[in-house]
C-alpha cells in the first residue's frame, strides 16, 4: 500500500510542478489553422514473410491482389492455383505534414488486413497513398519494422507486443503537393490545442503587446475559446512574422480536472483541484471459498461404493475501514489526506468517484 501511495504522490506532484510553471510558447499550445496535416491511406502487399503470411483460403482478397500484381508485371497466372504463405495484405496509413514538398519522405504505418500472424521481416511492395479527395499524394515501399515478436513451440507460445503492425521509416515519397498559398495570406488564425477562454485572451494580449511595440498596432483578437485571429502587418514577410509570434511566452490556464484510468489504475490531478471538507471510510471485503472434497472408501469385502463427500471452507476478511477527514485547500493537503487512508490506486479511484457524487470534489472527473 505504501508504494501505491508514493506512486500517487509522484504523479500528482509532477502534475503540480508542470501546472506551476505554466508559461509556454505559443507554438507549443497552438497551431496555424491553415497549416494542418492530411491523412493518407492505401492498400498493398507485404512479401518475404517466413511462412507467417495470409492463408489464401482464409483471405481470398490477398490471392486476388497477388494475381493482379503479377499480371501487371507481365506474368500470366490464369488457371494456376497459388499456394503461398509469405504474402500478407495490408492497409498503409500516413500523415502528410503541412508544406510538404515533392520528393521529401514521410513515415508510414502498416497493418495486416487478413489472417497473417506476423509481418516481421517483410517488405512492403510499391503502394500508392491517396487522400480523401481520391488523388494520389505519395508512394510507399520498403522494409517493415516490427517491434513485437512471437516464439512458438509444441506446447507453448510466447508473444510480446503486436506482430501484425509495423512501420516503414521514411518509406513514402511525396509525389504531389497540397495547393497552398501561405505567403499570400492576409490573416492568420491560431487554434489552441486545449480550448480555454482565459488562455485565448492571454494569447491575444501577448501578441498585441509584441505588435504594439514593434509595429505600433494591436493586430490580434480572441474569437472564442479555440481560435485567435491575427492580422498581417504590411511589408513584413509572413514566415518571419509567424516565427516572431510563435516564440512569445503565454501563461496558460485550464479547468480543474482529475483524470482517472480504471484499467491501469492511473490518477492524474491538476494543480487547481480542490476538495471540500468530507469524511471518507474505505474498506475491502474479501471472501475466499476453498473446496476440499473427501473421498470415502467402502470396507473390504463389502458391497459399498466409493463416495465423494464435499467439504467447503469459507473465510471472510475485511481490510481497512478507518475513517479519515479530507480537506483539500491545496494539492499537497489533498495528497496527504488520500495517502493517510492507505489504500491501493483502485481504492483511491473509488473514493474520488464517491467524493464527486457527494459534491465535494471541485473539479471535473474524467474517466478513461
* Low-pLDDT segments: 1-12, 14-21
Ends distance: 23 Å
Question: What overall form do the CA principal axes indicate?
Answer: flat
- The number of domains is 3
The number of strands is: 22
- What would the average pLDDT be, to the nearest integer? 79
Spatial order of strands in the largest sheet:
3-4-5-10-7-6
Structural classification: alpha+beta
Strand fraction band?
Answer: 35-45%
Number of helices: 7
Q: Please tell me how large the radius of gyration is.
A: 31 Å
Residues in helix, %: 10-25%
Biggest sheet architecture: 6 strands, antiparallel, barrel
Order of helices and strands: HEHEEHEEEEEEEEHEEHEEEEEEEHHEE
Write up this protein:
With 368 residues, this protein is an alpha+beta fold. It has three domains: 2-16 and 257-367, no CATH class; 24-34 and 181-251, Dipeptide-binding Protein, domain 1 (Alpha-Beta Complex), CATH 3.90.76; 38-174, no CATH class. 24% of the residues lie in helices and 38% in strands. It is built from seven helices and 22 strands. It has helices spanning 2-20, 26-29, 60-72, 197-214, 238-246, 331-341, 345-357; strands at 23-25, 30-32, 38-47, 87-96, 105-112, 123-130, 136-143, 149-152, 157-160, 165-174, 187-192, 220-222, 227-231, 249-251, 257-261, 266-269, 274-291, 294-296, 307-309, 312-328, 361-362, 364-367. The protein has a six-stranded antiparallel beta barrel with strand order 3-4-5-10-7-6. Strands 2-11-13-12 form a four-stranded antiparallel beta sheet. A hairpin with a 4-residue loop joins strand 8 and strand 9 (157-160). Helix 1 (2-20) packs antiparallel against helix 6. It is flat, with a radius of gyration of 31 Å. It starts with a helix and ends with a strand.
Amino acid at each position: 500500500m505504501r508504494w501505491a501511495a508514493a506512486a500517487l504522490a509522484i504523479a500528482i506532484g509532477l502534475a503540480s510542478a508542470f501546472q506551476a510553471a505554466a508559461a509556454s510558447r505559443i507554438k507549443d499550445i497552438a497551431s496555424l489553422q491553415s497549416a494542418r496535416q492530411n491523412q493518407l491511406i492505401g492498400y498493398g502487399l507485404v512479401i518475404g514473410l517466413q511462412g507467417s503470411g495470409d492463408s489464401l483460403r482464409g483471405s481470398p482478397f490477398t490471392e486476388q491482389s497477388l494475381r493482379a500484381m503479377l499480371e501487371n508485371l507481365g506474368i500470366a497466372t490464369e488457371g494456376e492455383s497459388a499456394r503461398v504463405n509469405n504474402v500478407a495484405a495490408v492497409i498503409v496509413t500516413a500523415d502528410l505534414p503541412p508544406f510538404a514538398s515533392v520528393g521529401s519522405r514521410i513515415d508510414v504505418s502498416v497493418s495486416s488486413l487478413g489472417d497473417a500472424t506476423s509481418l516481421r521481416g517483410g517488405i512492403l511492395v510499391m503502394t500508392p497513398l491517396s487522400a480523401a479527395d481520391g488523388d494520389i499524394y505519395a508512394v510507399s515501399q520498403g522494409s517493415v519494422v516490427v517491434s513485437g515478436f512471437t516464439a512458438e513451440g509444441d506446447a507453448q507460445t510466447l508473444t510480446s507486443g503486436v506482430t501484425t503492425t509495423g512501420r516503414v521509416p521514411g518509406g513514402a515519397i511525396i509525389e504531389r503537393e497540397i495547393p497552398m498559398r501561405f505567403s499570400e495570406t492576409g490573416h492568420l488564425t491560431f487554434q489552441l490545442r486545449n480550448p480555454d477562454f482565459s488562455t485565448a485572451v492571454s494569447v491575444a494580449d501577448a501578441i498585441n503587446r509584441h505588435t504594439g511595440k514593434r509595429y505600433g498596432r494591436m493586430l490580434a483578437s480572441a474569437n472564442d475559446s479555440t481560435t485567435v485571429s491575427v492580422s498581417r502587418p504590411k511589408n513584413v514577410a509572413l514566415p518571419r512574422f509567424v516565427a516572431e509570434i510563435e516564440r512569445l511566452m503565454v501563461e496558460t490556464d485550464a479547468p480543474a480536472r482529475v483524470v482517472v484510468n480504471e484499467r491501469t489504475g492511473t490518477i492524474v490531478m491538476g494543480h487547481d483541484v480542490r476538495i471540500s471538507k468530507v469524511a471518507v471510510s474505505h474498506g475491502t471485503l474479501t471472501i475466499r471459498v476453498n473446496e476440499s472434497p473427501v473421498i470415502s472408501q467402502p470396507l473390504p469385502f463389502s458391497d459399498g461404493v466409493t463416495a465423494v463427500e464435499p467439504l467447503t471452507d469459507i473465510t471472510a476478511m475485511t481490510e481497512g475501514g478507518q475513517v479519515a477527514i479530507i480537506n483539500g485547500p491545496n494539492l499537497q493537503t489533498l495528497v496527504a489526506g488520500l495517502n493517510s487512508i492507505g489504500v491501493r490506486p483502485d481504492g483511491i479511484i473509488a473514493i474520488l468517484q464517491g467524493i464527486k457524487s457527494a459534491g465535494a470534489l471541485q473539479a471535473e472527473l474524467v474517466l478513461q
